[in-house]
Amino acid sequence: MNDLVDEFDAYRAKMNDRILKDNNKVLKRIFNLDTNSFAEGALDKKTKELLGLVASLVLRCDDCVKYHLESSYKSGFSKEQVVEALSIGTLVGGTIVIPHLRRAYEYWDAIEDKFGQNE
Amino acid sequence: MNDLVDEFDAYRAKMNDRILKDNNKVLKRIFNLDTNSFAEGALDKKTKELLGLVASLVLRCDDCVKYHLESSYKSGFSKEQVVEALSIGTLVGGTIVIPHLRRAYEYWDAIEDKFGQNE
Amino acid sequence: MNDLVDEFDAYRAKMNDRILKDNNKVLKRIFNLDTNSFAEGALDKKTKELLGLVASLVLRCDDCVKYHLESSYKSGFSKEQVVEALSIGTLVGGTIVIPHLRRAYEYWDAIEDKFGQNE
Amino acid sequence: MNDLVDEFDAYRAKMNDRILKDNNKVLKRIFNLDTNSFAEGALDKKTKELLGLVASLVLRCDDCVKYHLESSYKSGFSKEQVVEALSIGTLVGGTIVIPHLRRAYEYWDAIEDKFGQNE
Amino acid sequence: MNDLVDEFDAYRAKMNDRILKDNNKVLKRIFNLDTNSFAEGALDKKTKELLGLVASLVLRCDDCVKYHLESSYKSGFSKEQVVEALSIGTLVGGTIVIPHLRRAYEYWDAIEDKFGQNE
Amino acid sequence: MNDLVDEFDAYRAKMNDRILKDNNKVLKRIFNLDTNSFAEGALDKKTKELLGLVASLVLRCDDCVKYHLESSYKSGFSKEQVVEALSIGTLVGGTIVIPHLRRAYEYWDAIEDKFGQNE
């Protein structure tokens, strides 16, 4: 099941490289901003991860959800906390979000299989 | 071609179980409401299935479309009726909906392959 | 409160005329298709009105909701039936739909104020 | 400028009452769930407010943004913190979000005019 | 009718100033990028205006449509050309786009009233 | 890597046939309009391709992006031009668009692998 995580990370890294080496200035700056906006600030980095996760879920972007699940995990959130965030996204975004919730659960399981459980 | 239906149903059932046994109260209630809102009421259950189908199509959620195609089929709608509903969704939602319409047609064919045609 | 209905209908009629007299072939045909797709067919016209209403609500288009509330009313749906359709849209589309639901209720009240209640 | 806040709150309260007294079970439960999902849990209530705010912004729902700006204010977030959350929403949701960001700024100003600044 | 244009421009300018003087780095850079991405490049500036217009229409953002109508006008596009672009947006985005199309027509008329017709 | 292009084209052609032979009048006319709206007119066909591409990207429809990448390629756009169009879509639509941008880059590479580079 680990493959889910490795596959996603590998494709993401390969294509990001592909895009960035292309040297389109606007795209490079958007990628840059992405890093800046999630950095420590008036809000702590950890809280920001969760904001990214919920935004991704309500916009129903599976790849974005995967990315933010991984960084939420690495920030130390427990599964229970992540699920509460996902439940808010599901309520706000509606039952149309449920198929993405299923894949989010599957991906979180893959993360825990690979790296162990956060307490 | 039957696999399309079995695969979808199996993954959906497995992950729904996974989510529900997790015991997040908000998610459980949303799943519950889903059942309630499509029950017989001032509108009959059959009409409601079609409302769910069109909502799913305009929101471009393939899995939701599949689910409601199956329950529309089981409610006894003919293909012609289902296609009329899909055509409204395509007009309201625009040509951006067409790729989802293709997959809806493919899935309906898989349903008929498996269970026979509704008259 | 009647003004809500009259105002909306007047603006809609004025601007539709404006667009149609402009003679862009694609736009004219889209307007035409709109009429065709909601006509009696394998599905009855009345059911189709409700499909249009729910599609409009989940896509969060206030003007489209108003239009379909009016035609749902004229098709003879009772308030209870319309509200059941709206409740499906709110569940599928999520709490983000609630502000549009508020305006839908207000508009339905304006319709009943003007034309009386459907039984 | 205070009117912005009072007007919004009054309309929201009036129409919510209107909807709830209508006694549609699905809608009542959705309203209920809304309260439950933002309650203290594995995540604190304060963090959840911010999740609601960002979800509302990326889904471009002005009324939802207003509501969550008010509750974020009442939870004690400083303007700088709220703006960081809004900036994440704007990056994730794109420049299409900017008109909603303008109205969010205007509304936050109205809140501070009325209740004073959070430190 | 000119007021439509003046009102929109004034509110937009006032709130953009408000946002920019707030000095949130991410927001300032997004505003900056907005200018850069529509500058002359491998594609000419004029074509890019139209891309912005159609993107705004299919995403159903009235304020964004207004802004890009104005800059499309200033780039020298004729009404017929602008309407062709809008018709593509309406087809791709579906009839749900029509209320926004109405307001786009109204705004274009206001622009022509104020500045005269492009030939 | 060519497979990406062939696979997509084959599935698209097969299912379009499937839909069209079904003879639903509304769907057939929508397919027809799709051809008409992208024909030479007040705007040249080439510009229209790019409008279709950007609309597809901001609406985050992978299949639509693939289709318009192919026709943009066949219209003679260079990669640099296409990427500028994609960068506008990414800015307008936000970072949520990035996963679709990755797949767009991959598909463009597959097109160039198959047909050679546009100069």
Automatic annotation (TrEMBL), chains A, B, C, D, E, F:
Carboxymuconolactone decarboxylase-like domain span: 26-104
The keyword Membrane appears for this protein: no
PANTHER family according to UniProt: ALKYL HYDROPEROXIDE REDUCTASE AHPD, BLR3452 PROTEIN
Record carries keyword Signal: no
InterPro entries associated with the record: AhpD-like, AhpD_core, CMD-like
Protein name: Alkylhydroperoxidase AhpD family core domain-containing protein
MF terms (GO), sorted A to Z: peroxiredoxin activity
Keywords: Oxidoreductase, Peroxidase
Family matches, as NCBIfam families: ahpD_dom (TIGR00778)
Domain of life: Bacteria
